[in-house]
Amino acid sequence: MPSLLDLRRRIRAVKNTQQITKAMKMVAASKLRRSQERITGARPFAQRMLQVLNGLVSRVEPELHPLLRLESRINGRTLLIVISGDKGLAGSFNTNVLKAAGQFIVHEGQEAGREIALGLVGRKSRDFFRRRGFDVRYETVGLFSKLSFSDAQEIAQTAIADFTSGQVDNVYLVYNEFRSVMSQRVVVERLLPIPRLDFDAEAAGPQVDYLYEPTPEEIFRDLLPRHVEVQVYRALLESNAAFYAAQMTAMDAATRNSAEMIDQLTLYMNKVRQAAITREIIEVVSGAAAT
Question: What is the separation of C-alpha 28 from the centre of its chain, rounded to a whole number of angstroms?
Fold first, then answer.
């Protein structure tokens, strides 16, 4: 049976931990509010741009731009960009995205016989895959503290350079999508080549002929790289908001568990103290009776 001093020390340690989890919850909540505002503002533009561009490129020849080409290349390599967090204490946030990346590697690499190269964003994904001997094309850590569009541009331009030079055949993104404070969904989506929508001829109606000014080559030369950058930026914003939501939820649960543990330890300490007092009274009474 632990002594009263040990129980008091344990209760004090749990209270200190509770204060830390409360503070982390408040910090995550404040950062989540800003991150949620950013993704709420960026998501409609990115989604609409994807829809319009998909409808546009579905009616043009793939040879107009290298990012539209669909033919397989000889090496058959795939670049998988894994977006994780830089920190932990966020429940299963990092575990879920690393698990999805592992399943993709097993399916596309071992079963389909394709080579998988990795682009790692976030300290957790870097630490996880670096120890396992994967082909890492590049890695980026610490960008979520001051996330900007230039960070997405750097990642997108690296992916575009690998794709257009023929070093990789496809580029995929895996990240956590922010849905609500209590819910995040792991998404694996193709970034390059730019996917095309399948149109139903009867549902879509007559085909539309576009007039291009300037030429289609010039339009796609400027528009397609920007589209890739916007989609990468959206994925980074989604992951950032999802991380703070997961961390806030985890710290809230830890705070409530700490309160329950403090109540249980306090009740147990009172029982131990009561037992000690009763034992002392019995000893005093027994001594008085003996005399």
Answer: 15
